[in-house]
Specification:
- The protein contains 7 helices and 3 strands.
- It is mainly alpha-helical and about 160 residues long.
- The protein folds into 2 domains: about 90 residues, Arc Repressor Mutant, subunit A (Orthogonal Bundle), CATH 1.10.10; about 30 residues, no CATH class.
- It has a 3-stranded antiparallel β-sheet.
- The radius of gyration is 28 Å and the shape is elongated.
- It starts with a helix and ends in a 7-residue tail after the last helix.
Length: about 160
């Protein structure tokens, strides 16, 4: 079962667990930014505490719904480690069930998927693109004349 379907089913059958899924998503993203795909269940609890959940027994229910995958790795036999194999789909499903909000309202039609690509110019091309970008738009001689004429005007009151 995919993470998307798992979250949707969980929303119907055990809605109270969606906050824990949200906390697991945050833990997954946080530790991926550190270069690790796995995270401890106790770290999910730390994230859940930020949402007002003080305790949950374990994450087996999220494993059974296909949202998390339990790893065989433990540290000292006491800590269970998990991974979220379908992170993007889990995030999408949490949005669809109203657990997370978009950064801002979109102007697109409701229910329509939109792909946003942000491209930047390579550093070397930026200067070349900006070079003489005003050419033909501004009369340089007139600009210089206007600047000198503006300097002749006195805006200070006479003493």
């Amino acid at each position: 079962m995919s993470g998307h379907i798992g979250v949707k089913r969980l929303a119907v059958e055990h809605r109270e667990w969606l906050t824990v899924v949200k906390a697991a998503l945050r833990a997954s993203k946080k530790f991926k930014s550190y270069g690790s795909d796995d995270f401890a269940g106790s770290w999910v609890l730390d994230e859940a505490k930020k949402e007002g959940i003080d305790w949950f027994p374990n994450l087996r229910i999220l494993v059974s719904y296909g949202i998390l995958k339990r790893l065989d790795t433990t540290r000292g036999g006491r800590r269970a480690y998990y991974t979220m194999p379908d992170e993007e789909e889990v995030e999408k499903a949490l949005y669809e069930v109203g657990m997370i909000e978009p950064l801002k309202e979109s102007e697109s039609e409701k229910g329509k998927e939109v792909l946003i690509t942000i491209k930047g110019l390579p550093k070397g091309d930026r200067f070349e693109k900006a070079m003489a970008g005003w050419k033909g738009l501004i009369d340089g001689e007139k600009l210089i004349e206007d600047i000198y004429n503006d300097r002749l005007l006195s805006t200070r009151p006479e003493v």
